[in-house]
Amino acid sequence: MSDPVVKIPTIKLTPVPGGVNVVQYGTLTIGSVETLEAGSAATVSNSGTIEKAVLDFGIPAGFDGKDGAAATVAIGTVTTGEPGSNASVTNVGTDTAAILDISIPRGDKGADGAGAGDVIAAADNTFTATNTFDGTLKTTCDMQHYSQTIGGTMTLDSSSDNLQTLYVTNDAATIRFTDPDMPDVYKKTFIVDVHRTGSGVFSVATDNNIGGNAATAYIIGGTLPDIAAGEILKLGVEISTEVNAVYVYVIGKVVL
Predict the structure, then answer these.
(1) In terms of Cα–Cα distance, which of 209, 201, 190, 189 is closest to 151?
(2) Beta bridge partners of 78
(3) What does the pLDDT profile of the chain (256 residues) look like in tens digits?
(4) Pick from 178, 199, 202: nearest CA to 188
(5) Is 119 exposed, middle or buried (0-12, 13-18, 19+ CB in 10 A)?
(6) Contact, 99 vs 92, CB < 8 A?
(7) CA-to-CA distance for 256 and 250, rounded, in angstroms?
(8) Which of 55, 111, 164, 242 is buried most deeply by CB count within 10 Å?
C-alpha cells in the first residue's frame, strides 16, 4: 500500500511577470508512528520539507487497567428433555458468576430385539407351575430343604443343607465340619436346631477340616448353653476358609 498523500496549500509564493503570485501545492505523507511511554506527551514532527511534509507521530501507550474480578461457573439444574428436543444450556446467573441450567433430551425407544423372549434354563434347573413373576418372585427356592441327625455326629460339608436339625439322645451328639475339597474363596453358613430327647452330651468337634486344613472351632460367647428336654437351642454356624475357622453363634433357646 502506498503512503497516504494529501495535497495542501503551502505558504511559498512564486512571483511571475505581471506581478501575480502563484500559490504552489505540496504533499503530506505519514512517516513513522512510535509508541511512547505511558503518561508522556504525544508528539508530531515534520521530517520532510514544507512542500513535501513527512509527519512522524509519537503516541503514548495507555496505562494498565485494574485487575478484573475472577469469574465463577457453577452447574445449576440438570433436567431430562423430551425425546427429539434440543439440548440446551442457559446461564441463569451473571456474566461473572455463571450458573448453567442444562437440559439433555431423553433418547427415543430403541427398536424391538429379534429374540422371541423365551428364557432357556440350564439342564439341571427344575421349574414348577407354582413359579410366578407378577411383581413377586415365587419359586421353590423360597423353601429350603433341611436335614436331621438323630444322636451321634452331625457331619457337615459344603454341599450340606443350610438348615439342619440335631437330636441329642442318650448318646453323645457332636457337630463336625469336614470338607477337604472346599475352595478357599467361599464361605458356608448353617442354622442348626438342637433338640434334647435324652441325657447325652452335646458338643462341637475339635477335629474339623476345611479345604484339607485343620480348622479351629470358636464358640462365640465362650461356651454352649445346656438345654433341657423340650427346649430347642438355635445355633448359627459359619465356615470361614479365610482363617480356617468354624464359628458357632448362639442365637437363643425356645421352650416348646
Answers:
(1) 201
(2) 102
(3) 444 444 454 445 556 566 555 555 678 889 899 999 988 999 999 998 888 889 999 999 988 888 877 889 999 999 999 998 999 999 999 988 999 999 999 988 888 877 666 656 555 555 554 555 554 545 545 567 889 999 999 999 999 999 999 999 999 999 999 999 999 888 999 999 999 999 999 999 999 999 999 999 999 988 889 899 889 999 999 999 999 999 999 999 998 8
(4) 178
(5) exposed
(6) yes
(7) 18
(8) 164
Q: Is 212 helix (H, G, I), strand (E, B) or coil?
A: coil
Helix (H, G, I), strand (E, B) or coil at 159: coil
Cell numbers 520539507 correspond to 49
Helix, strand, coil distribution of the chain in percent, nearest 5: 0, 55, 45
Q: 33 is written with which cell numbers?
A: 508512528
Q: Please check whether residue 216 is in contact with residue 244, taking contact to mean a CB–CB distance below 8 angstroms.
A: yes
DSSP 3-state assignment of 141? helix
| β-sheet with 72-81: strand ranges across | 72-81, 97-105, 88-91
Measure the CA–CA gap between 254 and 196, rounded to whole angstroms.
12
